[in-house]
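Page header: ASSEMBLY MODEL / two components / 1071 residues total.
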Amino acid sequence: MEMLCLKDIAPAAQNNINTQFILLDKGRANLEGGQTKTCLALVADETAAVHFQFWGDECDAFKPGDIIRLSNGIFSYNRNSLVLRAGKKGSIEKVGEFTMAYVETPNMSEIKWVPDPNNSRTYVQEAVISAYSRVFPPVL
Amino acid sequence: MAANLLRIATHEAENQLALSLRQAFLLLESNLRPPFPLTIPTSEEYQVTNELLEKLVDSARNQLLWVTGEMVDVSAVGFDALLVSLLRQVVGGDFTDGNLWLCFEVATLFLSKWDSLLEEEPMVLTSGLYAFLRLLADHCRVSSRNSKLEALVRLEIEFCLKMLREQFHLCLKVGRDVIRLLQDLHHMPEFQAVWRDLVLNPTVFGTSGFLGIAQFYSTRTSSRYFLLRIPPMMETHLRFLLTQVKLGGQKRHQAWFASKYLFSPDRETLICDIVRFICCTHHPTKEIIQSDIIPRWAVIGWLLKFCRKNYVEANAKLALFYNWLFFDERADKLMDIEPAVLLMVCSVPKYVEITNSLLEFLFLLVDNYDMEHKEMITRGVLSSFNCLISKGVIHTFDVLTSSGVIFPLLRERLATFLLGMKAGIAKELRPIGVSNQCLPALKFPNSSCIGTPTPSPKKQQMGVQESQIGSNSIDSVAHPRTLIEDLGSLVQNLVEAIKKSDEAGLSILQKILDLYVSIENLPASGPNSVRSLSAKISKDLEHKLFTPVQCFLDERYSGTEVESVTSIIIRKFVFSQKERTQEMLSCWSMDGFPVGPCLLSYASRLAYEANKLDNLGKSIVSDSLPKLKDSQVPLLKFHVKDCHNPLNSNQKCFETFDSLSELDRELVAKLIDDVFIAYKCFLSHLKTTFHNREGETTLSKLLLSDLISCSKWKGMRLKYLCQSLFSHLPDLSVGEEGIIRLLMSCLDDGDILDVKFDIGLRRYSLFGENTEAILSLIKTSLKWESLEQHKFWGLLGVELAVSGVRLEKLILNFFCSAEINDPSLCSTAVGGLLSICNSRAPTPELVGAVILLPNHVFQAFAAAVLSTWAHLNASLLFDSLAEFSEKHGSQNGESIFSNPTGVMVNHSAILWLLNYFDARGVNLSYVLGGS
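Prediction written out in full:
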């Protein structure tokens, strides 16, 4: 199983992302479509940060500082925002806490992606919308 | 059989070690029957206690403790490491059942296996001593101990005393930190006896060659003892913080660390253990030191901020300086003493109060820690300074000896002290500092002085001899003469500084206030009493002190007010919340300075700015701050900044060196509330101190008088004052006649309209929900100017529409009161009530009240109201009339209108009803029920 760095993920309609990151910040939980609880979060590893969407009971199972392993996750657009999440086929597990260095820029969710002119099935980076997360600003 | 060992939370990965243990168990299961092989487990196999104990399921924990005992019995290889690992798992300052259970079990193990331990691994007993002395200090401080904790404390005392009395030579091997820990216990009778013997009767310990405490002092405690009080997971996290996390990017890790380990006040005592660990156990490599990783001193500076209790803070500082006191270049390590000096030096530019307090503390230790060994300690501190310079940790002490921001007396003291070093004389016994001169030379050995940095209240209840010494030492700490004199000299300098420039004056004032707040006790009389100090300061500041603020609540409000003398004093008062600052403000207030009005207008200005901010955007997150800075909230900005200032120690923020980034709505709301609460405290203090004899004054009256003063200031907008008062101090303002009258007389129509909007939006209430109080206010208002009454009724109407006050009760009571018989007096009020009734829906209760109004001079009132209702909402009116009639109808079902049954119905009402129905050709009793 290949473990990806966050800086190497790109949007795709596939559940094939295996990676590990530390949870930096969590937003308030929402009810998506009035049904399931979701919660947007900022996660990061040594190479990049990204917005992660917790789903259902995941929302309460993790706290900032937790180190999380994502198996078969998906990085895609959800209601117009680009988020990493486990999805129905993937899973997340807490594997530790605290002992992980991280960076908060680049944020993969704050990048404008366009279809690759050479291969329409993949996306490439076009522009940086914001260096840091606009939802979870860095703590200075 | 291979059941789960650990409690695993949802979404928690399976622990790799637990997994391999389970696999190993399956592999070995067949071997677990006699005859057993005699293979020896390796130390790695004890890993389970290090990593997993915390999460082990209860039965596995029990078995682990049992098996440990068995291993001691058979002297299994490496059992000492297992015991140490168990000791580390007992968390300091944790009073949960599981932790106390573990502590109890381990203590029992140490006592019950005493002989085997002594024979096989005597050094593990010294680990037990260090751990239990330290844990005992936490456990014996709990005032309400339950039987479990009581039993545990007895067990810990038993073990520690057994060690000290029977195996003293082992204790001696631990070194100087034994004394540091014993000192925390010296209020306990059991340990007072040990102290006496240590000082007076060292031979009683039966260790040949032991001549006194100095022998402990000269032995550096090995770093592994400090690890005993750092649970393995915390060690991992601390080491990660100190080797991987970069300075500047440490905020999140620090916050996580704090929320995991320092979340409750009980856990504060861990700080001295962590400081000891950082200084003496975690020695970074050269590469780390030269990198941008967060340095040790910065982490310690951050940790010191978590100390809320004085004794915890003193213990943490002692932990930081402890090796300085006995430093010997040949035996000690430079890295142990490095963090303290760097913390002092690096704090000068931005956090000089840390430098001042550390330097002050260091000299306190030199003078008072153990006067019997003062020479040794002076030598130790001198060699520390010497070594730090010669090894290049710092290049010069200039920053400490010549920086203007260091307290002058400390600066001088340090310079003189260092002269001793340069001259190569290690006998700096009579420095020019005054602290030691105020202490009588004590003939009795000074064991009790050892505890001086942290006098506990219990100390005063000690035996006679001790208490004598104890109180002397307490005095020397609680009245640090140097600080008081510093304060005196700063106050003397104030007038000169003011002459020089405003800035210089403000900076001195700031220092005076900092010092004033931080000194524990001030003399009751003399030049340094509160009374004299406040008189001197007010004389020097003359017209700058509590000047009526121009345009405080005006758009033209100028930024210079933000940093005025008044604002600085107010902020200090709000943040320190000390009796002492109250006293000083009260003194000034009694001297005629408008302290109250200034506080009030400050608070209102803040509330006004916060309100503005609230309207600006829904949430204030960091990225909106740049905008905010330039916008018009200058006072709030400064207030928040000052709140984050580490000096204002009551406002502990989680982040140490923070600016405005944590700003959010809740914080701002809390800050504003705090200012109003502080103002209220000021009023109460004023009332109890100066007005109690007159007896009459209430807080509301004091508030009113401040409000009147404020309202006379040029540019003051009473509307804003009123808005913030009623929102933040409703208990003092709602329904208060004087305040409401003031508003009616001073607010113009535009302001009144704004207040009406606020009331309609339920931002606050002017009149409250108490019908009696409103009624009495109405009666009082009858004597007001007509214009005031009109405004009053306008506001009351709006408020009654949104409040829960029963209008029918109000009307009935008002029309039944005696005042109503004077029509000239009541016309405005009745007019007000009329429009209020007219605007309401004719509910059964309201209709009932109008029908039952007494017949008096305002005869037409009831008819007029009914007529309006008939016009606006006829159907509801008649439903209500029917309901009313039914309720008051006689037993035989006849309507009270056709056949009165003793209920007094209002004439005009019945007349109007008859006319109304006649005009429509309907019989009234037919309409209104009957049967």
